[in-house]
Amino acid sequence: MAHTFLLEEGRWILQGNWLERDSMPIVVRGKTIIAWGQSNWFTWVTKLVFPDSDRQEIAFQYRGRLEAGERHYNFVLQQSLLGRVEGEGWIAPESIIQRYMVIDDAERQRRSGFETLYRIDDDTYRLSSGILTGVSLTSTMEATLQRQR
Prior knowledge:
About 0% of the residues lie in helices and about 65% in strands. It is mostly beta strands. It has one domain (about 10-149): Lipocalin. The protein has a 10-stranded antiparallel barrel with strand order 1-2-3-4-5-6-7-8-9-10. A hairpin with a 3-residue loop joins β5 and β6.
């Protein structure tokens, strides 16, 4: 498998747009760090900022386990926007696809989300993600991730 994102430790820079219903796109920038520990556990930390907006930054901290040679993994995520989240991911030949659901949704809104990272080359991925409330899409993000060497 030719993936470098998630499957290898590394630092990535994110640049793109955040979109919400009935609003103009907002420029988003971010940094991502992937680290691997013992027993096939990974940590994925991302921080998003909105430089041209008064919008609060969003922090993500994933922890998951991916066995060598497997295509499917589970993870937990602590996100500043959604709180505690559980999800699963699939490693496809050209993309990494994740879906997740909020665990303790105090607002009982049935919030969930998805992320697709499409591999352009070893150092570049395109990200498309979204957050849903019930069956309605409430926000999306499109961005490019560039590996830092």
